[in-house]
Amino acid sequence: MTSGVRNTVLLSLLFVAIVLAGFVMNVMREPVLTTQQLREQGTFVLPTPREIVLDGLVDTDGEAFTTADLEGRWTFLFFGFTSCPDVCPLAMSVLSQVERELAERGDDELFDAFHGVLVTVDPERDDAATLAKYVTSFSPRFTGVRGDQAALAEFARQLNAAFMKVPSGEGYTVDHTGNIIVINPRGHYHAFIKVPHERDKVLAAYRAFASAW
Q: For 69-119, how does the pLDDT look when each residue is reduced to its tens digit (9 = 90+)?
């Protein structure tokens, strides 16, 4: 076999290998869902992301929580409280599962850009120490946010969320919106994910947002 023929054969084999590798990667790659497919799963993307104004909110270190804390990453935010018996721990657990899945897959870019936040709607009982312990039990990278009732109500209003104290036995509980709010890397309200929350649905939504960004 002449060197010319040998080179042609080698190049042909290399081309076939590249095509096969591309085919395998396309088959194995998780499909990115469309906006309609996301909606069918309970994720609703706003036609135009909305700017957010933050005022009077602090994190568990007592530092002001501002739009700068939302910029440069995808924030998955939940309004809840530490003594919530059901939907709050479930939502936070789902977010921690998503984060862990990204880490286990070695998807460093998406992992680094993922930010979980719990905004307490019960600041009377959720002091900084209580909130910090609760939030970091799900992930040391997650953030707890507090504020007075007026600041919390205004923040919730901007994100189409609501909460209300309700008498219960000798004390009270807090009814609140169960959506996970998604804030994009510009710090704008981007989407919301309705209950029931599931790891795979949140992960699929995140991948769709990030791929289109």
A: 999 999 999 999 999 999 999 999 999 999 999 999 999 999 999 999 999
- Rounded to whole angstroms, the Cα distance separating 5 from 166 reads 82
Same domain, yes or no, for 38 and 127?
yes
- When divided into structural domains, the chain yields a total of 2
Cβ-based neighbours of 55, under 8 Å, separated by 6 or more: 151, 154
Domain of 172 in residue numbering reads as 34-212
Which of 74, 81, 89 has its CA nearest to residue 207?
74
Q: Beta strands 57-59 and 74-80: pairing type?
A: unpaired
**pLDDT single digits (tens) 12-43:** 555 544 544 343 333 334 678 899 999 999 99
Distances (CA, A) of 93 to 99, 100, 198: 10, 10, 9
- Structure confidence by residue, pLDDT tens digits, 129-169: 999 999 999 999 999 999 999 999 999 999 999 999 999 98
Residues 57 and 153 in one domain: yes
Is 105 found in the same domain as 54?
yes
pTM of the model: 0.85
